[in-house]
Amino acid sequence: MPDFIETPRFPEDISYGSRGGPSYNTRVVQVDSGALIRNSLWAYAQHNFNVAYGINTLAKLEALVYFFHAVAHGRAVGFRYKDWLDYKSCLRSAAPSAGDVWFATGDGATASFQLYKGYSAGSNSQARPIYKPVSGTVLIAVAGTAKTENTHFTVNYATGMVTFTGGNIPTAGQHITAGFEFDVPVCFASDELSVNIEDYNSGMAQVMLTELKYGST
Are residues 117 and 73 part of one domain? Predict the structure, then answer.
């Protein structure tokens, strides 16, 4: 059994109404003076989603049960999830462009680069590794010049790695930018799916999804 399945994605009509978002892990110690010493333990957030809020019909509840059995096998198998608030390299209201995110700088030798999404507020910024870009959505530019997928570069849509081919490796100092849509790699947080049929036409389930973190903590 695989530990991750690229398709099918978790049902979009359920994820659209779900609730969740990013969380960090901070160790807080209160010293004798009352001051709080805070130590951030994770370099990147972990996203968690309560999909119960997206289940508003019996048909969606049935779709969840089928997905739980056929795809996920409880917590055993990971899958893609569309976070409707944060699924683009740009703001949700905009269309991705090849200049959205500066994610790497060429050195004349390195051919492969991990995709990142950037977040900024004032002088502060954070880069989030993107491991599950959506097939066909990745746009790449080198030093401001748009490149063509499968001519100048390829994308591993299972890992988020962009590889420049042949003589297209970016030279030293060239900024590499990208635009894309992406999914969150998740699994069910429990091996048990608790379902309640309220009447003949509706039901509910208590179920959480948790992001699968790769690489750095």
Answer: no
Supply the pTM of this predicted model: 0.90
Predicted confidence (pLDDT) per residue in 110-145, tens digit: 999 999 999 999 999 999 999 999 999 999 999 999
Residues 175 and 203 grouped into a single domain: no
Cβ-contact 141, 99 below 8 angstroms: yes
Alpha helices in 29-163 (DSSP H): 58-67
**Exposure letters 37-51 (e unless 16+ CB within 10 A, then b):** eeeeeeebbbbbbeb
Angle of CA points 56, 58, 62, to nearest 5°: 115
Tokens of 80: 């893609």
pLDDT digits (tens, 9 = 90+) for 19-44: 999 999 999 999 989 999 999 999 89
Range of the domain at 37: 1-87+184-217
